[in-house]
Automatic annotation (TrEMBL):
Compositionally biased spans, kind Polar residues: 405-415
Lineage: Bacteria, Bacillati, Actinomycetota, Actinomycetes, Kitasatosporales
SUPFAM superfamilies cross-referenced by the UniProt entry: Actin-like ATPase domain (SSF53067), Winged helix' DNA-binding domain (SSF46785)
Protein name per Swiss-Prot or TrEMBL: ROK family transcriptional regulator
Positions of region (Disordered): 380-415
InterPro entries: ATPase_NBD (IPR043129), ROK (IPR000600), WH-like_DNA-bd_sf (IPR036388), WH_DNA-bd_sf (IPR036390)
Amino acid sequence: MAGTAHDEPGSAQHIVRLVSSGAASSRADLVRELGLAPSTVSLRVQELVAAGVLTESGEGASRGGRRPRLLRVRAQGGIALAADLGSHHARLGAVDLDGSVRDTADLPHDITAGPESAVDWLCERVTELVARERAAGRTVRALGVAFPGPVRPGEGRVLSPSRMPGWHRYPLREVLADRLGLPVTVENDATMMAVGEHAVARPELDHMVVVKAGRGIGSGVIASGRPHDGANGAAGDISHVRVEEAGDRPCSCGNIGCLETVASGAALIRELARQGVEVATTGELLRLVADGDPLATTLVRTAGRHIGAVLSVVVNFFNPQAVALGGVLATAEPLVAAVRGVLYERCLPVVTADLEITTTVTGPDAGLLGAGLTTLRRHLRTGPVTQDPTTGREPAAPTGREPSAPTSREPSTPQ
């Protein structure tokens, strides 16, 4: 998968990305794209065909020699389960190699109650989903988790998340893998949203910023076609940038005057309550906006200006090709219009000349797609396979522990 540390040039992940994006449709295309020997490419393609990840059939257009056979990502080449976690809800589903999503469900859950209860709850939901997918004859290869806080790259360990006591340094990937017997990938939620949007809707772009505006605020960064995590997984965390209008409002991070205190869904709900309007969720807030409530509309528009002010620095510094707004608040047109207006007002003309400012195409599935595709392509060879599609028999166990069916073991104690 583009952007993961495991997507090395010429790797199985890289080959699948080239085929699934349309950049390569034959072995000859892969030779040209990768710069590898034809024999090396043929060996790696054959391994992916034998594993049921790719298919090779039909004939493509000749370029002077023998007509090439066409490569495609196999529709039943295996799926990943994915969980996009929020502070008070989760969206779960199954993701195919071709970027399609099925069996999605939005469920309430308070992740701020602590890691132990969250892991128990998530393992129960994933176990149920594994059973349904396997009953339908699908191969479950891995689990991808989009987590609402910084995650140390390559480790799946949570680092200093705001509003979430007990989670600091929690080895979420390790615990989930042990409990479920599946390969697991854990990454930041906004980064996974950016990966999903980029991979499925905008693969031609090299540089983009995707903002997740909901109960909290975050952003994911795609640089040179890859997600940029930063040294400790905190890249793109615009939520805790200080804004003048926030004054000395205390923030959950321990600082004062952060963007989150004036522009997040939670902040807008608090401000409505202060002015005598009680709403319980961001969805209820947006219904007020849709009904033309002047107070709610003004607050959302002002939040958009605050977000735009912070993004203007990011856009001037990074010079992306696109800024895509996602998350529940991005469904409010006043907020989107305000962000767009501030960016055009404050950014350099050379930066905004070709800049696309829009909402996400993948919508609520962006995080699922990012988490699912990342873990699926990362574990192409290590994910559990129910049978070899070329022989119909169980494959030999790979090196290391063979992933088993989900179990009910207690999570290991974090170090």
